[in-house]
């Protein structure tokens, strides 16, 4: 099944400066102002490689990478290893830790059923990552994947291997990051052998994984010689790790001709119990209660102080709405909202959603409310998070969720370890 292996990571040397000022969040959540600020703090910040700018941005990234290697800013580890990575953070009022390890994973087409996606992707993002890969031949950030391990054998191994002082430990203000390097061949072999019968479920990084597949095929077709085009860099985490947190992504409706709040609610009453609530301050409390009761529910906010709680009356309606889908897909909150409300009541079809013509997304609760209050959106649907088990079940069924169905928190930081695809081991 999944084939994993150690590798000699490309990492920053002491010459580059403080590791805290050399790393950054994933490129797709960084604004241009934030990018500029990172580089102002340290011109060697990995964002220069991961999110290049200029008239020929991808060529500039490739040039910078070569220069930094030549000058010793970046150095390749002398021994192959696995890189144990832990994030400590606060979510839902609790301090949590999630720990996994970074390694190389052999690329497998989705149809092989070894590495499974759970979410749709956008072609524009994939083209951008492909262009960057062509000029750098390097993974600067990890794809985030989960694995099943009922006895938590692998988690026990990495816990035992990360009891000493980490190689890196620093905070970015919200998350404390720790990294340990494992070079012991016996320990590495044991962990790699653990995955002989396992599948991997992509949590975050679908675009990068599909790009890695495309790039591998491109190298084969063009006869490009590379030591490791068949592998990409991944962070692997036990699917039952108590530190795993998934946040919801809220939906914003805007620019819809003839939008009417009361007509929307009237259209929902066939399938939902609609309850008017008097204060937006109670939204989270009500959604939490529905989540705990395993109800399919979301909040509908169209402005003012009040809002409406929509609770699905009977889940069996989804069998006729999505007849070709598994029970796992039919039972998702986002499937219920998209099928029974956005499509059926508001007339926003799948293509419209994909193009974000009348629908956009935010992970920020306050931003969703403010968007309606400021007149930027006509309506906001506040969601509960997707459960990790639901993600696994949809992926295992060979299906994909709608875009922006999940948001794993926190994101993996970029720049601690990099994978050069033209370097063997």
Mind explaining what this structure looks like?
By secondary structure, this protein is α+β, with helices and mostly antiparallel strands. It has two domains: 4-245 and 409-420, no CATH class; 249-384, Conserved hypothetical protein from pyrococcus furiosus pfu- 392566-001, domain 2 (2-Layer Sandwich). Helix content is 33%, strand content 24%. It contains 15 helices and 21 strands. The strands form five sheets. Strands 1, 4, 5, 6, 8, 9, 10, 11 and 12 form a nine-stranded mixed beta sheet that branches. The protein has a six-stranded antiparallel beta sheet with strand order 15-17-16-19-14-18, with helices on both faces. Strand 16 and strand 17 (307-312) form a beta hairpin. Helix 3 packs parallel to helix 4 (123-136). The model has no long low-confidence stretch (mean pLDDT 94).
Blueprint of the fold:
Blueprint: E1 4-5, E2 10-12, H1 32-41, H2 47-50, H3 57-71, E3 74-76, E4 82-91, E5 94-106, E6 115-116, H4 123-136, E7 138-139, E8 143-147, H5 153-161, E9 168-171, E10 176-182, H6 185-194, E11 200-204, H7 206-222, E12 231-238, E13 245-247, E14 250-253, H8 261-268, E15 272-277, H9 283-292, E16 297-301, E17 307-312, H10 317-321, H11 327-330, H12 333-343, H13 350-355, E18 359-362, H14 365-373, E19 379-382, H15 388-396, E20 407-409, E21 419-420
Parallel strand pairs: 6-11, 8-12
Antiparallel strand pairs: 1-5, 2-3, 4-5, 4-10, 5-12, 7-21, 8-11, 9-10, 13-20, 14-18, 14-19, 15-17, 16-17, 16-19
Helix pairs in contact: 3-4, 4-7
């Amino acid at each position: 099944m999944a084939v994993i292996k150690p590798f000699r990571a490309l990492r920053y040397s002491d010459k580059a400066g403080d590791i805290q000022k050399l790393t950054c969040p994933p490129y797709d959540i960084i604004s241009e102002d934030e990018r500029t600020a990172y580089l102002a703090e340290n011109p060697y910040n990995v964002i220069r490689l991961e999110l290049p700018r200029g008239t020929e941005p991808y060529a500039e990234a490739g040039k910078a990478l070569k220069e930094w290697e030549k000058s010793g800013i970046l150095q390749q580890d002398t021994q192959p290893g696995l890189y144990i990575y832990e994030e400590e953070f606060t979510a839902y009022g609790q301090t949590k830790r999630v720990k996994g390890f970074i390694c190389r994973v052999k690329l497998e087409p989705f149809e092989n059923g070894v590495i499974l996606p759970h979410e749709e992707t956008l072609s524009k993002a994939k083209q951008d990552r492909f262009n960057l890969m062509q000029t750098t031949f390097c993974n600067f950030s990890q794809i985030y994947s989960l694995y099943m391990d009922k006895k938590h054998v692998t988690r026990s191994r990495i816990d035992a291997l990360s009891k000493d002082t980490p190689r890196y430990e620093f905070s970015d203000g919200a998350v404390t990051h720790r990294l340990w390097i494992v070079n012991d061949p016996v320990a590495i072999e044991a962990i790699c052998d653990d995955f002989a019968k396992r599948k991997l479920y992509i949590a975050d990084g679908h675009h990068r994984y599909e790009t890695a597949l495309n790039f591998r095929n491109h190298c084969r077709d063009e006869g490009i010689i590379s030591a490791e085009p068949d592998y990409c860099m991944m962070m692997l985490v036990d699917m039952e790790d108590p530190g795993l947190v998934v946040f919801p992504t809220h939906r914003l409706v805007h620019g819809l001709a003839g939008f009417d709040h009361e007509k929307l609610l009237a259209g929902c009453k066939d399938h939902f119990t609609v309850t008017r609530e008097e204060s937006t301050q109670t939204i989270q409390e009500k959604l939490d209660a529905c989540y705990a009761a395993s109800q399919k529910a979301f909040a509908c906010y169209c402005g003012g102080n009040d809002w409406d709680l929509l609770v699905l009356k009977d889940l069996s309606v989804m069998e006729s709405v999505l007849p070709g889908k598994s029970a796992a897909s039919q039972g998702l909150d986002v499937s219920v909202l998209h099928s029974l409300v956005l499509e059926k009541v508001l007339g926003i079809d799948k293509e419209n959603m994909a193009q974000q013509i009348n629908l956009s997304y935010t992970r920020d609760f306050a931003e969703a409310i403010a968007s309606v209050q400021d007149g930027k959106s006509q309506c906001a649907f506040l969601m509960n998070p997707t459960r990790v088990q639901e993600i696994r079940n949809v992926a295992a069924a060979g299906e994909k969720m709608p875009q922006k169905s999940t948001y794993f928190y926190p994101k993996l930081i970029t720049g601690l370890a990099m994978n050069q695809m033209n370097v063997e081991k």
